[in-house]
Design brief:
This is GNAT family N-acetyltransferase. InterPro entries: Acyl_CoA_acyltransferase, GNAT_dom. This protein has a single domain (2-145), classed as 3-Layer(aba) Sandwich (Aminopeptidase). Helices cover 25% and strands 34% of the residues. It contains 3 helices and 8 strands; from the N terminus they run βαβββαβαβββ. Strands 1, 2, 3, 4, 5, 6, 7 and 8 form an 8-stranded mixed sheet that branches. The N and C termini lie far apart (36 Å).
Length: 152
Amino acid sequence: MNWVTKTFTELHTQELYDIIQARVNVFVVEQDCPYEELDGKDQEAIHLLGYQGTELAAYARLFLPSAEREHASIGRVLVKKEYRGTSSGRELMTKAISVLEGYQQKTIQIQAQYYLDRFYRSFGFSPISDVYLLDDIDHVDMLRVQKETSHA
């Protein structure tokens, strides 16, 4: 998969359309979850796009810490249906973590759908909340703290 990171202002119109279409198809249509997909946060995000050829196959939205957010975070994690089961999700998360670590971020938070708990734990995320209902889907907040490497 070919990976690209862009800020909102770097996105071309077609890229933005492809992102919105993929997010609506996965989070609203597939999960039968009507919610406000366009939340006003895309403008401050780093957009991670994974392409298979010229087609957007995987996507995540990354944030650095800010006044509203104590930790870096990863959200809107998706792999299009036709690319699932091909390790694209694992590749996406590995790349997302790597991008944030490139910004010297050692602590990353996610708001995970609970059924993916084991998947996210495999990347070093640990639950920091009880399971809660969000848009009729069980979620759990998780945190990943990069381990310090010793230079002995």
